[in-house]
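yo

u said u wanted the structure for the complex thing, so here. seqs first:
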Amino acid sequence: MSANNDRDRPRVLVAMSGGVDSSLAAALLKEQGYELIGATIKTFCYAEHPGSSKTCCGLEGIADARSVAQRLDIPHYVFDLEDEFTRDVIDDFVAEYAEGRTPNPCVRCNSHTKFRDLLRRAQMLGCDRIATGHYARCERVDGRVRLMRAADRSKDQTYFLWGIDRTVLERLELPLGELTKTEVRRRARQLGLQTADKPESFDICFVPDGDYRGFLAQRLSPDHDAFLPGPITTLAGERVGTHQGYSRFTVGQRRGLPGGFSEPMYVVDIEPQTRSVLIGPADALEATRVTIADQNWLADPPPIGSAVSVQVRHRGHEVAGLIEDSGAERTVIRLHGSHRAITPGQSAAVYDGEVLLGGGRIARERRLLPIAST
Amino acid sequence: MRRTVYLDYAATSPIRPQVRGAMGPFNDAAFGNPSSIHAHGRDARVAVEAARRRILGALGVSDGRLIFTGSGTESDNLALLGFGRRHPDARIICSAVEHKAVIAAAAALQARGRQVHSIPVNEHGVLDLQVLEALLSAEERPTLVSVMWANNETGVVQPIERVAALCQARGAILHSDAVQAMGKLDFRLGDTAVQMLSLSAHKLGGPKGIGALVVCGPVELEPLVYGGGQESGLRSGTENVAGIVGFAEAVAVSSAERERESARLHALRDRLEAGLREALPEIVVNGAAAPQRLPHITSISIPDVDIESLLTALDLEGVCVSSGSACTTGSVEASHVARAMGLDGDWARNTIRLSLGWGTEAEDIEYVSATLPKLVRRIRDFTARA
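structre next:
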């Protein structure tokens, strides 16, 4: 029988959230002549969360993505990845808070749902590659793929991408990597895409009202340790107050701590076993090392002694360092100088110049205070 | 070139050329309102009444009314709600595999205090007559039984003659949704004690937006729509004249072709099932062991495959089929029909429906028989790697 797809053209699946970035990504790929398929990932049941339509993946997002796909004359589907998203992202989010860490669900979503699961679905549909509207670049040199920072450094999203599989990278297209956000909006307007001027979303998509504690309380039992009172203790071991649940705290936080100290105090650690929130002065937040666990490498893991840079939060600067220890379980990076509020559970992305090498979750240090910073 | 194979005739069908031709004038010069007394109105009235007689004639009904409605769903609603509102002490009995139009209307009546019973079906999708008999003998009050002539997901034909005999013996009114059966089965309503019958034009190659409820005998109904009193006061509103004319034409064409066309579709459907079974021996054809199925529908459960991906992959290869009921955002839910037949969660969810019609040709069947197994294997292949 006659084959339906002209297999001389690669079949590419583009993830379309309904926002301007993925809309333009789709438009650019269409211009490049691929056989293009649009898909919007449905990550949780919108019917149960009517207030969520304003976020990028709500029902409005699906409708916007659909109408952009129609405009581009490409088929569009909704992929129900609710089970996978709940398992890999939401359950992890809840478990991490329960452990007194501060998770980054967007990284988890990228590591699992948005790339790995999407690629699997795409391959089921006979697609050779997947594409997204992330600000990052895929550079193919000598048959190897490197993930690079976006040309527009202010929009660079590689920090969120350290956890994707290398096999995904080989099949990934990132058409926005060379563009600035302003250019993206301008070109989207030129193409008449209705999403050109859509505002960006910053919320955690499954906690649209920002009330993540309410969300946690629904998922954990209300009498979980994370919501029960516990001691606020200084690093010297002095109990200086009682908190109403360590889930309210994150490393580096000042708000909600008792006053009356000679200098401002910050959360420096959370111990879920004793429900303790440890506080200390600003310099107690300074760390000279980052230890990462649950690591993933997009390139060969950097050997001990190699110079890298590491980024520990989204809009944060990268810090230069040296690989001090490297193993299958953990990698320790010694920083040049010290760095503030390295938060357990958050992501550390490791770079060699513009190239994202990989990263991991920041592990809790046994001892936060360098005894004597030499 | 992209090939498209449309195997979703049970959802809707393309309009037949003859139907389009018959409707043409009524979308144009013959625009009158049948209620007007002037020439335009009279012409329209003549067309509507001729259409009514044609459809009743095709059904073999000499002594009955036909109320034009907007859809098969509206016809079902008129039958159930019309009866239930007329009789405050009404009892409604319907099968577990009815169309949602019947199930939801019955639920609405239940919420208003009417007694509602559901009759289970066996593993082949056939109604349990003993349960119906027991329910009918239990009580003396106005009772409406609603049993579809043939199921829209599996094509399984219900033993309507026997249901009708039970209803007649107990003085119950019988309504049957014949939206899928019309044009496929040889039913002469005059021979069967069915008092109400729901029909729809667009499954027959007619236009969308037009249905009918045929009412035989002394059935008292409350209207759902009030106004100018059209359609014997049961469905006010200016008649959809072009739709009505097209409906009658579709009934006439499909009745004339019925015997030959049913045999042709039956053979194609059997070939499709045989082809799929050969390539994928693990599939189950739902209702295959029922005494009778409609010739053009097959319901297939495929184990160990992501059904959403399969439907999408089929669409990408130009094959249009359907699954169980779809939710607003386009994801797939398990079908209540498959569940009622005792299929467990995964099997029920992993069910697709392929339905043939007047435009289906042998090469369509060959294409789908070759394409579908290939896609199933590809999806399984990538599932296994996860």
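Confidence is low (pLDDT under 50) at residues 52-57, 367-374 of chain A. The domain at 11-190 of chain A is CATH 3.40.50.620 (Rossmann fold).
cya
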